[in-house]
Each structure stands twice: as C-alpha cells, then as structure tokens.
Amino acid sequence: MAYTANSLKAELNERGWRLTPQREVILNVFQNLAEGHHLSAEDLYNELQSQGDPISLSTIYRTVKLMARMGILRELEFAEGHKHYELNQPYPHHHHHLICVKCNKTIEFKSDSILKLGSKTSEKEGFHLLDCQLLIHAICPQCQRSLLPG
Amino acid sequence: MAYTANSLKAELNERGWRLTPQREVILNVFQNLAEGHHLSAEDLYNELQSQGDPISLSTIYRTVKLMARMGILRELEFAEGHKHYELNQPYPHHHHHLICVKCNKTIEFKSDSILKLGSKTSEKEGFHLLDCQLLIHAICPQCQRSLLPG
DNA sequence: AGAGTATTGTGTATTATTCTCAATAAGTGA
DNA sequence: TCACTTATTGAGAATAATACACAATACTCT
Ligand SMILES: [Mn+2]
Ligand SMILES: [Mn+2]
Ligand SMILES: [Zn+2]
Ligand SMILES: [Zn+2]
C-alpha cells in the first residue's frame, strides 16, 4: 500500500501538520527510487534539483526526519558519516543490510523472522514500532585482501 | 574470552600496529563498563580524564574506530547525532537495542537466532563478520502520550 | 475569503569527527 | 642494550553534516 498525496495528507493533518508540495515531491522521489538505492540528504537535494523541483537543504533535512519519525522513511546509518534514507516498506519488501566498513559496499537481504522479532519485542515493551533493521558490519572479500591500513 | 594486554598486543602487531598505553587503557575502560552502558567519544574522554589517564580526543576517535574495525568494539548509532561504543561480546552477552527516537530511551535484548543469521549471511557473501546488530527504532510509551511535535 | 499558524528558504551556528604536523615512543634486529 | 624505522600521539585547525533563527509564505479550517 503505497502512499498517495491524499493518504499522506490525511496522516499529516491528523497530527496537526500540513501537506506541502515539497513533502509530496520528496515522497515521490523515494517511491520512484529503484530497489537497493538509498539517498543522503545531499543526494536528494541534487536529485530534486535536476528533476526541476528545487527544494532547500533545510527543508530536505526537516522532511526526511519528519518522515522517518512517521515511519514513512527509514533512516540508515552505514559507515560513511552521514545518513541515508529509503522508503520503509512492509513485508515482503522489507530488508536488511550487510555493509563493508572499509569500502561501504552494501548487500541487501531479507528475513521475515527478524521482522517478527522486531514487532514482538517493541510490542512487549509497549513501544510503537517505526523500523527494524539488522545491520551487519563486516569486511568484504576485496577489502580483506587489500593490505591497506585502516 | 576477554582481551588481555598481551592478546591485544598480539592482534595489533600481527597487522603491523603497536600496543600503546593509551590503547590498553581505553580497552580497560570498556571492559570495566557495566552492562547496558555505552560511551560516546566525549564520554570516554571525560571518563579517562577523571580516572587520571587523560588521553587526547584525537587519539580517542582514532582508537575507537580502530577497535571497531578490528571487531573489538561495536559502533552504535542511536538517534542522537553521535556514535556510541561498547565491547563487542560474543554469545551469550551479545545483544541488540530497542530505541525511542524521541527521547533515546534504550532497551537491550538478546537473540541468538539473529546472531546466527548474521554469521550465515556474511559467510555466504564471503564477508568477514565484525558485528551484527538489530536496531529497532520506535516510540516509547511516554513519548506516545506526549503531544509535542517532532 | 480571512484568520491563525505550520512551513519554507536564506543565512548562520553548532558540533562531531577528521586532518596536519612536529614530537614521541613502540617494535625490531644487531 | 642500543640504535633505526616508522606508527602513534597531542594540539590545534579544518571539514562537513545537521540544526537553528527568523521573516516571508502558504496550508487548513471556518
Ligand atoms: Mn536498502
Ligand atoms: Mn548495548
Ligand atoms: Zn570492502
Ligand atoms: Zn521516548
């Protein structure tokens, strides 16, 4: 069940917030993003720029944060010093990430048992689940061979 | 199997690196850290300061990064804008985190099935596993009640 | 349409983390 | 034990991601 402009508006208004063209366009970018892709704030800024919908960096930071807290986007912290975002999709699109801490190569994989564990755990503690992600930090085959320090 | 000064030295030297008093002291702080505690770089800086082993912030940042890449420490990114570190312990101490994205309340929980999945996945891709952590972003009971924006 | 207020864009501030570089000291082998 | 090589440290400056302040704008509701 993908978001439409209307369902997004409904969810925003319910909390006393507003639907703006910026928010709608930003959500669209994520909905059209190919599988396995993740955007940083700056990526998103450039993408919007080049598709002719320029939006200020401030608004971008505010919006992705807002949408992550609504559970619309998931916030991913790989090993690069800045956050990445992607659509927070339910089963069967929900997935996890295996990351090389040296070169940032990322592999996605699925697991519904983790998703179940995430729901069960947050429910048990009375938390409202937003996102559950297994993050595997590792070193890829190529970087294992390289003798470079660090 | 906790690290001793000697085993740490062996692992460092094996890679052409050196054991320094700073590295030894930093590892000790983490080994003496109570369960459920996590230190930011600044926390660690202050802790060392007050225990009479002052170490520069530069060295602290370099050391925790080094130890994370060696698999000695695990790097945790909660929702506060800076990293936290804790000892990377194997089963049965290995655990995961449920975090409130609004107030940062953190609850730890264990799961050996995730640990297995992490090993299996990285092995399958030929990666050398460093750490595997399930991160559950959620909103705690108290913050659900609060009507504050954000 | 108008009131009330959430949101935007611009510019600036903050702050975690990295970088630079000269001084120091760990490892190694004679 | 003593040099020799070079990894490491500490101090400070630099960087870069993100947050903030505020006046102008534009949603939403009546
Ligand atoms: Mn992904
Ligand atoms: Mn922990
Ligand atoms: Zn790699
Ligand atoms: Zn909370």
What's the short story on this structure?
Two copies of one chain form a homodimer. Chain A is an alpha+beta fold and 150 residues long. The first copy, chain A, has six helices and five strands.
Describe this entry's structure for a reader.
The structure is a homodimer of 150-residue chains. The first copy, chain A, is an alpha+beta fold and 150 residues long. Chain A folds into two domains: 90 residues, Arc Repressor Mutant, subunit A; 60 residues, Dna Ligase, domain 1 (2-Layer Sandwich). Chain A contains six helices and five strands, in the order ααααββββαβα. A three-stranded mixed sheet of chain A has the order 4-3-5, with helices on both faces. Chain A is globular, with a radius of gyration of 17 Å. The mean pLDDT of chain A is 93. The interface between A and B is large, with 42 and 42 residues. The site of one zinc ion has 7 residues of chain A, from α6. The structure holds a DNA duplex (30 and 30 nucleotides).
